[in-house]
Structures are given as structure tokens and as C-alpha cells.
Design brief:
Chain A: Keywords: Membrane, Transmembrane, Transmembrane helix. Chain B: Pfam families: ATP-synt_C (PF00137). Chain B: InterPro entries: ATP_synth_csu_bac/chlpt, ATP_synth_F0_csu, ATP_synth_F0_csu_DDCD_BS, ATP_synth_F0_csu_sf, ATPase_proteolipid_c-like_dom, F/V-ATP_Csub_sf. The complex is a heterodimer of chains A (about 160) and B (about 80). Helices cover about 70% and strands about 0% of the residues of chain A. With about 160 residues, chain A is mostly helical. The longest helix of chain A has about 60 residues. Chain B is about 80% helix and about 0% strand. In chain B, helix 2 runs antiparallel to helix 3. Chain B is elongated. At the A-B interface, helix 1, helix 2 and helix 3 of A face helix 2 and helix 3 of B.
Chain lengths: ~160, ~80
């Protein structure tokens, strides 16, 4: 794999391709987990199980993916004076918001009769573990240069 | 009112304590991960890209436990 030389003025962190790849693979694996979970849910709990498996997988993968997506969003501020503040504000703010939304969703979905709680829980666990496996594999296979974001001085000239 | 009487008056679902623990643990974990990343980037700004990826994988593992802990609300009655 060849990489094109980076533009020295390009201050985008080198983590972007890794995160983007992890999000894409996470979505692909989520599709697989949803299909397998949906079949098991349909077999063991009928239509409610199917809906629960699809919803559980979707919830797990979307909420696990928000962290990577928030880092990608925050990296758009790379190079600006407010980058560090904006980066941690967006990533940690997104994290907090994500958990509040997740808790509200869990409370809202608890009592509904068109969901099977056990299948939903198992689908969420499967989605979370699947997402973690994808993240680890993508990071383990990624190549990040050590001095990626360094700005070197121009080479000396002889004259 | 003695302690035994107070404890006897407490009612509710004990699983609620679990949701609190599911929030505290990852909060501390993510705090440590992000704090150490800030330290690392402050020491070596050129490694920001690498450290971001490591921070992200650390947050992913930490928040996984929180998600599973909160989702137990579906199965604990």
C-alpha cells in the first residue's frame, strides 16, 4: 500500500482514516449481527424477538460508534486555536449526551409490549462486543506514523 | 431513630444501585483515559493522531461496561 506524501499545511490528525475505517466496518458487522440475531429472535420469541434483535443491535452499534464519529467531527477543528478545547468538549460532551439519551431510551422501551426484553438485552450485548472486536481489529491492523503531525523546518539550501 | 429502623424503612429496587455503579465506574475510567491523553498530547503534540486512536479504543472498552450495565434494566425486574 502506498501513501501519498502529506501536504505540510495539512494539520488533520492521522487518526481520521482509522476511525473512518472502524465506523464502516462496525456498520458492516452490525448488519451481520442484526441478521443472525434477528433469526434467533424470530425463532425463540416470534416477531417481538425479531424487532428486539434489530433494535438492540442498532442501539449498541450506533451508540458505540458515536465516540469515533465525535472524534472525527472534532478533528475538523484541527489547526485552529480552539482545537484542544473544542476536541475534548465535543468528544466528552458527545459521550455525556449519548448516555443521557441511552438511559432515556432504555426507560421508554422498558414497558412496551412489542419488544422482548431478554432478546433486546442480548442483542445489545452482542452489538457492543461485536463493535469492540471490530475496533480492536481495525486498530491492530492500522499503521500510524510516529511523527505524523510534526511540522519540520524547510531543508537547508547550499547557497 | 436507630440505624436498623432507618434501614428497614428503605424500599425500592436494589438493582437501582447497579445502575449507579454502572455510571460511576466508566466515568472514572473515561476521566483517567482522557486525562492521560491530554498529558500525552501536551508532552508530545506530534503524537496527537496516535494518542487519539488509543484514547478512542480505551473509551470504547470503558463505555462497553456502562452500556451493558444500563441495559440490564431490561432484564432485572
Amino acid at each position: 500500500m502506498t501513501t501519498s506524501p502529506r501536504d505540510p499545511a495539512d494539520r488533520t490528525p492521522t487518526s481520521n482514516p482509522v476511525l473512518r475505517r472502524a465506523l464502516n466496518w462496525g456498520a458492516a458487522i452490525a448488519g451481520g449481527i442484526a441478521v443472525v440475531g434477528g433469526i434467533f429472535g424470530l425463532v425463540f420469541a416470534g416477531t417481538e424477538g425479531l424487532v428486539s434483535a434489530l433494535l438492540g443491535t442498532l442501539l449498541a452499534v450506533v451508540f458505540m460508534g458515536i465516540t469515533g464519529a465525535s472524534i472525527l467531527l472534532a478533528n475538523r477543528f484541527a489547526g485552529s486555536d480552539v482545537f484542544v478545547g473544542a476536541f475534548f468538549g465535543i468528544v466528552l460532551g458527545g459521550w455525556l449526551l449519548k448516555f443521557i439519551v441511552f438511559i432515556v431510551l432504555v426507560v421508554l422501551l422498558r414497558g412496551v409490549d412489542w419488544l422482548d426484553p431478554v432478546v433486546l438485552f442480548l442483542a445489545i450485548v452482542a452489538g457492543v462486543i461485536g463493535s469492540l472486536v471490530v475496533d480492536v481489529l481495525v486498530v491492530a491492523r492500522s499503521r500510524l506514523p510516529y511523527a505524523s503531525d510534526a511540522q519540520l523546518p524547510p531543508p537547508p539550501s547550499d547557497d | 431513630m436507630d440505624a436498623t429502623t432507618v434501614l428497614a424503612e428503605i424500599n425500592g429496587n436494589i438493582a437501582t444501585v447497579g445502575y449507579g455503579l454502572a455510571a460511576i465506574g466508566p466515568a472514572i475510567g473515561v476521566g483517567i483515559v482522557v486525562g492521560k491523553t491530554i498529558e500525552g498530547v501536551a508532552r508530545q503534540p506530534e503524537l496527537a493522531g496516535r494518542l487519539q486512536v488509543l484514547m478512542w479504543i480505551g473509551i470504547a472498552f470503558t463505555e462497553a461496561l456502562a452500556f451493558i450495565g444500563i441495559a440490564t434494566y431490561f432484564i432485572f425486574v
